[in-house]
Amino acid sequence: MGVNAHRAFENSGSESYRKNLNPDPEHIEELRDASNKIRATLTSAFASWERRIDAGILFEDVAVASFAEGFAKPRLSPKFRGQGSYVYHTLNRPTHNPPQEMDFDDGMFLPSSFVTLNGHAHPIVASEGYFRLVEEALAPLCRSEGWTLNPERPRPSCVRVSLNNKRSHIDIALYAIPDDEFEVLVEKAARSAHSSFGDSAQASAILLDEIYKTITLDRIMLAHRDEGWKISDPRKLEDWFLAAVKKHGEQVRRLSRYLKGWRDHRWEKCRLSSIALMACVVRYFEEAGASVPARDDASLAELTRKLPQYLRGEIRNPVVQGRLDEGWDDGNAPLRPGFVQCAEELRDDVAAALAATDRTNAKNRLCRIFGMHFPDDPALIEIDGGSSAAILSSGVLGSLGAASDAQSAVKIGGDERFG
Predict the structure, then answer these.
(1) Annotated region Disordered: where (predicted)?
(2) Are 108 and 42 in contact (CB under 8 A)?
(3) What is the domain class of 25-234 according to CATH?
């Protein structure tokens, strides 16, 4: 005996865990409206930068010297593109609010001339001045809207605007791209759009995407408060995840959201990042290949059987050098053992729920695992005599609930990135 809980996770008709994780439409509209106001404010501020900030603050010394020699000061016209979970379609509504908030990541791309200093090319715009102009431009908007600029502390590689609803924020990453290449791509994309579409709105929508996708690799630079300019191409992570979805199907996206939902239910704050969980999901699909079950509940059981092993080892960044588990083993209270223990309990709890002999018992167990967003409806679960053997083979059944010492260990040093 056992149960088939696929419809409780995903179905096209009634309530499901996946649907319950979707943010409310009014919250999304609120984020979009705030993002549009921020973009309009920054576009205006950079167009009139000479009235707002001294050139010696905004630009590198070599650029300021060229202005003194009669070279024209540049016109600054930033472009914007959404990033992160909103673009990946993995954005979840928070479980513990506060402190959890929906996170909308927006990239600001500033076309700029580049200069070579000490053998390295970087923008003539100074990274410190870039942050300063953005924050000085947004401060009046935040005051008028009741928002908070950089709550708690400035993030090293973005500017955060916390909305007045206390349930969402917008992180603006500041990039620079070479203006000469940008202008060529604009002209090329405009010709292509003009030849394909008569409607200017359609053309402008294609224009941004065509430019973004064709900028030369390693020519996008990210402003960092402490380290200056860093090569950082946000397309790599987006392309990696969307390629995994294209190869393995929408279940990659759904299982990523289920793990994030479990994490957000389990901990109010946690350094088990969304991208680390997504990397584990993609690894599972790559290893399992064609043997991945079609049912979400069965596939989740197989994934959770592997998750403790994944979290014990290194979690490499899938697109650049580096790791996604940095800091998990630091200090007197390392985080990794707590993460592994909680993953083991998740494995055993999911197996026990799917091996239940009645629908209500299975539903109650799954609600305890995934929290308030899991549907409280036993009718979505079916008795399935053929499923228990496969589920029971996934791991040793364990007790429900986490040990309190494991929870406290994991909470140390937690961040606020959810969604």
Answers:
(1) 1-24
(2) yes
(3) alpha beta
**Coil, helix or strand at residue 3:** strand
Position of tokens 């590198």? Answer: 60
DSSP string, 88-136: HT-----SSTTT--EEEEEEEEEEE-EEEETTEEEESB-HHHHHHHHHH
Amino acid identity, position 52: R
Q: In the chain, where does the domain assigned CATH 1.10.1410 lie?
A: 3-22+236-411
pTM of the model: 0.86
Q: Residue 41 and residue 45: Cα distance in Å, rounded? A: 6
Question: How many angstroms separate the CA atoms of 278 and 253, rounded?
Answer: 8
- Count of CB atoms within 10 A of residue 337's CB? 17
Find, among 90, 73, 145, 133, the residue nearest to 108 by Cα.
133
pLDDT in tens, 115-152: 887 778 889 999 999 999 999 999 999 999 999 999 98
Domain span(s) for CATH 3.30.460 in the chain: 25-234
Categorize the per-residue pLDDT at 189 as very low, low, confident or very high, splitting at 50, 70 and 90. low
* Secondary element (H or E) of residue 36: helix 25-47
The helix (run of H) or strand (run of E) holding residue 148 is strand 148-149
Looking at residue 23, the DSSP 8-state letter turns out to be P
Place of tokens 């050139």: 55
Residues 6+ apart with CB under 8 A from 234: 83, 107, 173, 175, 220
Written as one letter, the residue type at 154 is P
CATH topology for 3-22+236-411? Poly(a)-polymerase, middle domain (1.10.1410)
- Give the CA-trace dihedral at 42, 46, 51, 52, to 10 degrees: 50
pLDDT tens digit sequence for 307-337: 999 999 999 999 999 999 999 998 888 999 9
Any residues with CB less than 8 A from the CB of 42 and at least 6 apart, and which?
78, 108, 134, 137, 138, 172
DSSP conformation class of 273: -
For the chain, how many residues are written?
419
Q: Amino acid identity of 231? A: I
